[in-house]
User: Fold this.
Amino acid sequence: MLTMSHFLFVSAVLFTIGVAGVLSRKNLFIVFLSIEIILNAVNLSFVTFARFLGQLDGQIFTFLVIAVAAAEAAIGLAIVILLFKNKESLNVDDFKLMKE
Amino acid sequence: MEHTSPLIGLIPLFPLLTAALIGLMTLFFAHKGQGAPKGLVSTLAVAGPLASFLVSCVLFFQLRALPEAERALTQTVFPWIHVGPLQIDVSFLLDPLSAMMILMVTGIGTLIHLYSVGYMSHDRGFSRYFAYLNLFMFSMLVLVLGSSLPLMFVGWEGVGLCSYLLIGFWFSDIAKANAGNKAFIANRVGDFGFLLGMFFIFFFLLNNGGTASLDFAAMKGQAALFTPFAATVAALLLFVGAMGKSAQVPLHVWLADAMAGPTPVSALIHAATMVTAGVYMVARMGFMFAISPSAGLVVASIGALTAIFAATIAIAQSDIKKVLAYSTVSQLGYMFIGVGLGAYFENIVAGAGAAIFAVGMFHVFTHAFFKALLFLGSGSVIHACHEEQDIWKMGGLKAKMPITWATMGIGTLAIAGIPPLAGFFSKEAILTNAFIAGHYQTWLYGIYAIALVTSGLTAFYMFRMFFLTFHGKPRDQHIHDHAHESPLIMTFPLMALALGTVVVGFLNVPKVLSFGFLPTDLFATWLEPSLKVAEHGEAHMFHPTATTDFILMAVAIGISLVGIGFAYARYAKPTPATEPTKALWWEILWDKYYVDEMIQAIVIEPILKLSGFLRKGVDEDGLDYVVNNTPKAYAGLSNAVRVIQTGLVRSYAYLMVLGMFAILLYYYLHLAK
Assistant:
């Protein structure tokens, strides 16, 4: 019998993988993908709560997150392309204008 | 019965107007890069005081036409300060005392303005000079005419300001600018006492059921409320103000330095008028001094001390103006002996004081003539010698400057107390009264003795100055060759003042010298309504016999003649005797008893040390330390926190995650409870 905890556990694992990816990888694309994984981990928790608590709010939030993620992907990719054009690099550590 | 007159306000108004006009003209022409037209400036400058003098004469005769008991004219110009119990109007009081003062101030002032036109004719600051000088006339007239202590104080401060401006007139010379500062600061010390005196009187009346008022008439009417102790406090506080303004020991130090100003200024401000303000104030507040058993004696003692103190210093000075300055200080001491004894007599025998106050005021009056004359004469000499002031570089000027020689000779004889010149009558009266005071308290013979010795010293040092300047062989041939008599515009005031010096003494001839035809005690009778504190009492007064009077006179004249004789023997020769410059006593006198140095060591140095401590110890090491180190602490904190600002996105992400975990942990622990 699958309980709520099982789903939430998977969500937590996904979230952790995403966070670990964001923190450890240097390639902008991989970081970007890791963020998507985090978002989907959140989506999974929302749906889980919606299913087990019998409320639709969670599902509606999931759609909202998917829509925002799509928009974010579009803008994010555009930014990544521009960054690459400027620096010929996708290494996150090369972009530290705030410090310089 | 109170009389009013709309004319009184005109007296200070004229000099104020001309001062403003000349001042504006100076500014206007300075803007265009040139001096104001001298003809117009001099006309205006002399017209201001002259107009005041004419109005004063008119008012004098109006006043004289009134019955003696009602001799007081008032004019309220506008309400000034009306706050709660404090009611002060700008209102003028013309009574016999102020009438005498304004006649003296405007009359001598006009002559000195006239003289200044000649004396300052080549000066670049010509119009600025006259703007200040007219402003001084205005302030002095407000001082004299003010009907209350606060209004008097306005004039009091005004003359102090003008004195400062004129002492430092040639301000590009730092020593002269410093002399101006010194005068102003020494006067401020005295003014502080004056202010405290006013506050004390006001609050004393307020708290003791009187009408709190600083109006002279109102205060005099409530004199009965004052206990002897309260009156002593009030009188002595006011006297501190008088000591500052009238250069009494130990606040006399500024007057000799004040000679840095142009010589006519020394004549007008630092000899004839402003410095007598203190004496005038004591006479005006005489009723207060008379209530106190000791205030009058303090005043007289300080006066006597100052008289001999300054006279001895004057013996050793070689600067012609310094000699005159110290003789002024010395004579001011005489005046304070006069008014101080007035208060003392009034205190022991009610009604006896008025005549002796008048004696002090009479010396103010005669001194104004001969001291203005002497200063203007010295100005004429200095002018002729191309700004040389050292009497040891002069000599033999008699032939070159006969008018200056003759007029100064009259002035010198007058100050030495030789009859029948003005100084004889006024000084004689003071000496006689000091002698009478000795009858009541034996130690007061000491004051008489001091005054007598001072009189001899005065004759000596004045004739020393006179002989060294005019007689003997010229000691600096170059200066002597270029010396010349001054123009008429300068010699005319000299002659007028010399005439005054000869005649004004007869205004107050003592009874023993009337010889059956001279009118006696005119001056004292005239001033009596102002100076009278109580009725009657004249009969109870001890008075020496006519023989004693004559002996006293003979002694005084004899002492003066001895002084003149000594001076003649030492200094009238072609080559005068050299001074004992090596002797210790001479050095002490030459250095003015080291009073300046003492003030420097006792007052100024500790203040500087305290200021230094406040600056270094409290401000820099205390307050500044806190203020400067607060930003440093912030800067250190910032530097510490700054290291986490790497610019790397991943490290920010790390911190974000850490923060997230921290928040979660907090909630977890919190909720677990």
